[in-house]
Specification:
By secondary structure, the chain is mainly alpha-helical. The chain is 58% helix and 4% strand. The protein has 6 helices and 2 strands. Strands 1-2 form a two-stranded antiparallel sheet. Helix 2 packs antiparallel against helix 4, helix 2 packs antiparallel against helix 6 and helix 5 crosses helix 6. The longest helix has 46 residues. The termini are far apart.
């Protein structure tokens, strides 16, 4: 009997030595199908990390969507003011002579000369702190998805400078070109496009 037990022990040891060794599973996983593959352990460290990553991705997407929605409303309002200022300038509301062209006084019927309306529009555009607001929106979108990747730093500086220098006493053609350049930059931020229109003109056509 002792000899038979020794033989059986040797047989088992031989089988164990010949059996394939399973690789240790990755942390948070376990071997299945005889070690042919691994599966994530529910509630394990890998599963917890996966859920955290998904939650962060959802939070980032929500933050980007909020920044883009804020950007779009703000840009639409600013571009509407630019369109209205452009129309006033076309009717002769600006210029060094203070809007004394016949069209400049159409607004008198509503009790406010169009020269004053144009100045108010420029004050509204400048006073809305466009650049500060755009910088806030840019900062809110950490991966740049709010559209600012469409503008170079040089273009962003030109946009800020054009807004700051809006002046109803400048020659009307200079005003209109400046307005269109501003709107082009804002449009590019919003859509990625390079050109837009104010009235019938593109920026290249306003001389």
């Amino acid at each position: 009997l002792l000899k038979m037990a020794q033989i059986e022990k040797m047989r088992r040891e031989t089988e164990m030595l010949g059996a394939p060794q399973l690789p240790a599973p990755t942390a948070g996983f376990r071997n299945v199908d005889g070690g042919a593959k691994q599966e994530m352990i529910p509630g394990g460290p890998a599963d917890v990390k996966r859920q955290e990553d998904l939650a962060k991705k959802d939070a980032d997407a929500a933050e980007i969507a909020a920044a883009e929605a804020k950007r779009d409303v703000f840009l639409e309002n600013t571009m509407r003011n630019i369109d209205e200022a452009y129309a006033l300038s076309q009717r002769g509301a600006g210029g060094a002579i203070g809007g004394t062209a016949p069209g400049a006084w159409i607004g008198n019927f509503a009790g406010l000369p169009e020269s004053k309306q144009l100045r108010n529009k420029y004050e509204s555009i400048r006073g809305s702190n466009v650049i500060a607001m755009l910088n806030d929106i840019r900062a809110a979108s950490k991966n740049g998805a709010s559209g600012f990747g469409n503008l170079t730093e040089k273009e962003f500086g030109a946009l800020a400078n054009s807004i700051e220098n809006l002046d109803s006493t400048l020659p009307e053609d200079v005003q209109r070109k400046s307005l269109l350049e501003i709107k082009n930059y804002l449009h590019k931020i919003k859509t990625g496009g390079s050109k837009t229109r104010v009235g019938r003109f593109t920026v290249e056509e306003v001389k």
